[in-house]
Design brief:
Elements lengths: L2 H13 L10 H10 L3 E5 L12 E7 L2 E8 L4 E4 L10 E10 L17 E8 L8 E3 L1 E5 L3 E2 L20 E5 H6 L11 E4 L10 E4 L2 E8 L4 H6 L5 H4 L5 E7 L1 E4 L3 E4 L2
Parallel strand pairs: 10-11
Antiparallel strand pairs: 1-5, 2-3, 2-5, 3-4, 6-7, 6-11, 6-16, 8-9, 8-15, 10-14, 12-13, 12-16, 13-14
């Protein structure tokens, strides 16, 4: 088995649930897939000396290459070593701890399931990374790409890259208004009103005739503070909007309904 296949198997052991095969770069895929479930892979600074009573995953180097191994216990030993790499004298090169992004939230539907309908109150695009966003009355949403005229459509966004959740971002007007943040400074494509976006993570939804799928929350970060204003992290945690992909394209216009797919 390849390291990638062993890593997938190890995640299945830790999670006790099936894990999909990556359809792009392994680590970005697993990080994004886990992120949809309130989970993350946290690198361990000194994996060889790591002392942790729970599960963690190690990259073990053996004579025939690198292997993934589930470690457990304090001191840790191999719980699942499909290639017997550790047992044959392999050395731990690095490791990762599987941890919740928010310890207070569950793994299944961590952000709730409230999905009442709402509407589009603003559409915003920017031609390049860090350039100001401008409002438009309508935009063409292209499946697998994004909004025509936006930096992510052409792969020029700050976070552009392979993977899920880079095609479209949405945010609630109610949230932006509550923190007195101009909609353009939120740096999201679609501003909605009347719908709880968090409940769309992992679910299909429509914007007018356009079909999308919610991938994960668009959490605030230092980059947003840099381009907007300091102090946004705390009030926007779990309230910064939704990252989504476009499944079936079409034209999005102001006033379009936003609703969970039936």
């Amino acid at each position: 088995m390849s390291f990638d296949a062993e890593l997938r198997e190890c995640l299945e052991v830790v999670l006790d649930t099936p894990v999909p095969e990556p359809d792009y770069d392994t680590f970005p895929f697993f990080k994004q897939w886990l992120g949809e479930r309130n989970l993350g892979l946290v690198p361990i600074a000194n994996a060889r000396e790591f002392d942790w009573p729970g599960y963690w995953v190690a990259r073990v180097r053996a004579e025939d290459g690198d292997h993934a191994v589930v470690m457990f216990g304090s001191p840790s030993g191999p719980l699942h070593d499909p290639a017997a790499a550790f047992a044959k004298g392999g050395t731990i090169e690095e490791g990762w701890l599987l941890a919740r992004l928010d310890v207070r939230l569950p793994i299944e539907e961590p952000y709730g399931h409230e999905r009442r309908a709402g509407s589009v109150v603003a559409i915003l695009t920017a031609p390049d990374a860090e350039s100001p966003l401008a409002r438009v009355d309508e935009a063409e949403a292209v499946a697998g790409r994004g909004l025509e005229g936006d930096r992510y459509y052409d792969g020029r966004g700050t976070f552009s890259g392979p993977g899920r959740g880079y095609q479209l971002t949405l945010v609630e007007a109610e949230v932006l208004d509550s923190v007195d943040l101009p909609w353009e400074q939120a740096r999201r494509n679609i501003v909605t009103r009347g719908i709880a976006l968090n409940g769309l993570v992992g679910h299909r939804f429509t914007i007018g005739a356009v079909e999308c799928i919610g991938r994960r929350l668009a959490e605030p970060c230092a980059h947003l503070e840099k381009l907007s204003r300091p102090g946004l992290l705390r009030p926007l945690v779990h309230r910064g909007g939704l990252r989504a992909d476009i499944v079936a394209g079409g034209r999005i216009t102001l006033g379009d309904a936003v609703a969970a797919a039936e």
